[in-house]
Amino acid sequence: MKLKRRNILSLAIILSLVIGSIALTGCGGKDGEDKTIKVGASPAPHAEILKEVKAELEKDGYKLEIVEFQDYVQPNKALDAGDIDANYFQHKPYMDEFNAKQETELVSIGAIHYEPLGLYQGEKKSLDELAEGDKIAVPNDTTNEARALLLLESEGLIKLKKDAGLTATKQDVVENPKKLEIVELEAAIIPRSMSSVAMGVINGNYALSAGIKEETAITAAKTYANIIAVKKGNEDSEKSKALFKAMTSDKIKKFIEKKYGKAVVPVF
Q1: pLDDT digits over 98-111, tens only?
Q2: Hey, which of 15, 25, 79, 166 has its CA 20 to 30 A from 222?
Q3: How far is 265 from 114, CA to CA, in rounded Å?
Q4: Residue 242 CB: number of other CB atoms within 10 A?
Q5: CA-to-CA distance for 11 and 127, rounded, in angstroms?
Q6: pLDDT of 20 strictly over 60
Q7: Cβ neighbours of residue 265 closer than 8 Å, sequence gap 6 or more
């Protein structure tokens, strides 16, 4: 049976559309992915490390776009909303707490480094100088506040409830011999508030950003390893694999060790 002219024309149009669709998919890379990886990060050391990662990703044909955030909330919100492909600024306990509170589903694809959480000099230069009623600033986000309080406890300044753990707040302080005033502040603000407190517990990245010297730390505790986070379901995507591979290369490890010394320690 001969096909009518109109049917032949329709078939030709359909075939051209199918071929065009295949061609477009092929241009996007595997599984239709584009080749740009957008990562949210704190300015230091995270964004600085990512800048070094750009060249590593280019070897695999990817372009890295870095989006800097000044706090610990927005990068997770941006990741959950799909505005970025990954973020790099937090440790897993913080991410787990965020997931529980915000009902998000963010997951880790691997750990990169840890930063010491330090008790730094403010108006007072040593623990012996602390007087009754002195103020000590601590981060106000759940896991970092708990770790700050545990650091103070390890120095004998306070004592916490036995079961306080990583959800501890100043309400869990059961012994405070010097009646120290625990001042809860946003982590990013503490470096700028040191002139108004006796001492402050500062996250390593914010100490770096503020140019606070390592030798002004009175004592320090190793924080949990900072991770690369992605939205659940993207753990095995080509972008995630390429990003983790680039960030755990020998070149990046040497860069971190040379630039930051003891302030930032690679874990890969």
Answers
A1: 999 999 999 999 99
A2: 79
A3: 5
A4: 20
A5: 83
A6: no
A7: 113, 114, 115, 222, 256, 257
Phi-psi region of 261 (alpha: psi -120 to 50; beta: other; left: phi over 0): left
Contact between 142 and 150 under an 8 Å Cβ cutoff? The reply is: no
Radius of gyration, CA atoms only, the chain? 25
Give the DSSP letter of residue 220.
E
- What pLDDT, in 10s, does the model give residues 238-247? 999 999 999 9
Please, which contacts does 75-81 make with residues 24 or more away whose CB atoms are closer than 8 Å? 75/40, 75/41, 75/42, 76/102, 76/104, 76/106, 76/229, 77/102, 78/40, 79/40, 79/106, 79/229, 79/230, 79/231, 80/104, 80/105, 80/106, 80/231
CA dist., res. 204 & res. 190, Å (int): 12
CA distance 137 to 198: 8
Helix, strand, coil % (nearest 5) of the chain? Answer: 45, 25, 30
Overall residue count recorded for the chain in this entry: 268
Question: Is residue 71 pLDDT above 60, yes or no?
Answer: yes
The encoded tokens of residue 142 equal 């759940």
Q: Which residues pair with 231 in a beta bridge?
A: 106
Strand intervals (E) in the chain? 36-41, 63-68, 86-91, 106-114, 116-121, 135-139, 159-160, 173-175, 181-185, 199-202, 217-222, 226-231, 265-266
Cα distance between residue 8 and residue 119, in whole Å = 78
The predicted model scores a pTM of 0.74
The rounded Cα 212 to chain-centroid distance in angstroms is 20
What letter does residue 129 receive in the DSSP assignment?
A: G
